[in-house]
Amino acid sequence: MSKQILIICIFLLTGCMSAAIRFWNNTGYELPEKERQIYDTCYDEADKFYNEKTQRELWYKVWTKCVEDKKR
Length: 72
Prior knowledge:
By secondary structure, the chain is mainly α. The protein has three helices and no strands.
């Protein structure tokens, strides 16, 4: 009996997870094209000065300042 309950719980959990993943992938927030271009440009500019993986904090400061300047 407990094996049957365990199997049912696994199937339910699997179904819930696949539904959550489908929901997550299909209802994402989309940026307007202009804003996406700003983010991409600033991403490239920050990469010129700092490595995103090893100098994340400095990279983020450059990226944030660039985005703020370009949005004005």
